[in-house]
Task: structure prediction
Amino acid sequence: TDVDFGAGALLGRVIVNRLWQHHLGQGIVTTPSDFGSQGARPSHPELLDYLAGELIRNGWRLKPIHRLIMTSAVYQQSAEPREESLAVDSDNRSYWRWNRRRLEGEIIRDAMLATSGLLDPTPFGPGTLDEGHRRRSIYFTVKRSQLIPMMVLFDAPEPLQSMGLRGSTTVAPQALLMMNNPQVRAYAAGLAKRLVREVGAEPEAVIARGYAYTLSRAPDADELASGVEFLKEQGARHRGDGHDQAAELALMDYCQALFCLSEFMYVD
Result:
């Protein structure tokens, strides 16, 4: 870690490259575990050196680097493509637009827990293999013979080896899990109860608050109208099936649908 007579400067570059990769989807050096002669060259070497210098000047504290990256213009780029830029840099190595990417499996689960109001924020302590636990996903115990299915489906890293960059697949079982998993259903039930508790049962208010919690924005007029129509029709279906709490079940279905939206799972 000696920046004057040791490998401290190299260590700083490796660390900030991992942070950049975490926030932007690809590192300034695209081979995060290989900064040697066989690795990729940095796309922006001056930026890499600047960030490493800031890390060292801030006493190796990571939070200032997170803040620096996330308040930068490059982090706030639109994901909309431009034909003239695509023709010159289709891989977006110059960061002329945002790389749309899915959240990690742990964060998808944590986001559902947080928005549902069921998250247990207790820090520290032992891990667990119980899929129904309500602490953050970092508290799952990693056991090779008992991997957590939801984490595996959303590309959790292989536990037998170090991984500098996770894969990100899109497969049908992911959608099936979001529609049928009992834990996801429990999170939807928690969110439905939270919405009614906070704003009452008025459909427009419930839908607006649901959008705020899950998508961090207000619904537009069409989304609001379709949401109200869904609650009305789904409630009628549940009543036709003989359910006493038809309105509550319809709202649970709607909350689960919000969790299934691409906008909930993707950083755009």
Remarks:
- The two ends are 36 Å apart (CA to CA).
- DSSP finds twelve helices and two strands in the chain.
- The CA atoms of residues 4 and 10 lie 11 Å apart.
